[in-house]
Amino acid sequence: MALINKVLPGYVATLWCQSGSNPTALTDTQLETWTGQVADIIGTTAGGTGTDGIQVPVESIPAFGADDASATYAVAGARTGAKITTQNQVTSLTITSAWNPADTAQLLIRDDGYNGTTIRTFVIATYDGTDTVAYAFNARVGGLQWDMSPSAEGKFTFVLHPVGGNSYGWSNNS
Amino acid sequence: MTTQNSPVIYAKAIQYQLADIVSPIPVYNLFNRNFTKTQTKFITWQLRNVHQPVYTGQTQSNKGIDRPVFQISVFAQKDIDALNISNTILQSLHGYSGMFGNPADDGFFIAKADVYWLYNTYDNELGLSQIILDCTLDIPA
Questions:
Q1: What ipTM score was computed for the predicted complex, to two decimals?
Q2: A57: nearest CB among B55, B112, B138
Q3: Which residues of B touch A (CB under 8 A)?
Q4: Is A46 at the interface with chain B, CB within 8 A?
Q5: Which domains does chain B have, with CATH numbers?
Q6: What is the CATH number of the domain that holds A20?
Q7: What is chain A's pLDDT, residue by residue, as a tens digit (174 residues)?
């Protein structure tokens, strides 16, 4: 199958995570391996196999990727200073979802945040109906908040903080 | 993990609830000028804005709560009657939380009913005072 070659609406993005209370996060190599690894976390509705993961029902997927950073320094005698691009850490994701106390994925994330040390593999999948592109990363959960404003539905907000190092990877089903 | 509720159930519940509040004044869905020939006061209602917000992804159940609105039109030959009926509805419905509709026939729980008393007016052709109210329901699904 070919890689997706069309502009995608944001709506096609979904968030998936490993199931189970004691997950074994993927290794750096596995994070960029589709077959048997990332595909197992993504459900069939987004082109995966779904044998090892569940969907996290979120309102929308925030911007993901890496934070920007550079080393800047002054050069004596030159017209300007200079910058060297450095690779910063993977971006943390602040995610809002409609609070459903019976949702398995939300309870799993609540337990992870309560535990504080659990490292779980999360995958953002974009799916055009045939093919999938996946961005996988290992993260801990922090910043659990519940906003029960009486003028709207209850919101559950959490932050996924990627662990350091190279713990993210791109893959696709082609 | 929410499924879209049926507008049929909403309609049944609104009809039941309004009739229960203003009994014995008749309650109708939608206006018909024939009512004016036989009724000195009556109420009609219209349902609108049945909508659960849709969230990202291909899973259809990833939606928010439904917050439909129904508009209540109070009709009466005497202005004071219309005002009194509108007050009865306000006192009963505004801020109400609990069973909405007939518990024995598709009634359901609402977290909140929020009534907005909009305006009063007069229809010279019909000879009827009218008062319009909006009611928003918060329905967990």
A1: 0.83
A2: B55
A3: 1-2, 53, 55-59, 61-65, 112, 138, 140
A4: yes
A5: 7-52+61-69+76-138 (3.30.2000)
A6: 4.10.410
A7: 678 888 999 999 999 999 999 999 999 999 999 999 999 999 999 999 999 999 999 999 999 998 888 999 998 999 999 999 888 888 999 999 999 999 999 999 999 999 999 999 999 999 999 999 999 999 999 999 999 998 889 999 999 999 977 889 999 998
Tell me the residue range of the domain where A76 lies. 11-172
Does the residue A32 lie in any domain?
yes
What is the residue-wise DSSP string for chain A? -PPP-SPPPGGGEEEEEE-SSS--PPPHHHHT-IIIIIHHHS-GGGTS--SSEEEE--S-PPP-SB---EEEE--TTSSS-EEEE---PBPPEEEEEE--TT-HHHHHHHHHHHHS---EEEEEEEE-SS-EEEEEEEEEEEEEEEE--TTS--EEEEEEEE-STT-EEEEE--
Q: Per the structure block, which two tokens stand in for B70?
A: 């129904």
CA distance B111 to chain A (A): 9
Chain A residues touching residue B110 (CB < 8 angstroms): none
Cβ–Cβ of B1/A153 closer than 8 Å?
A: no
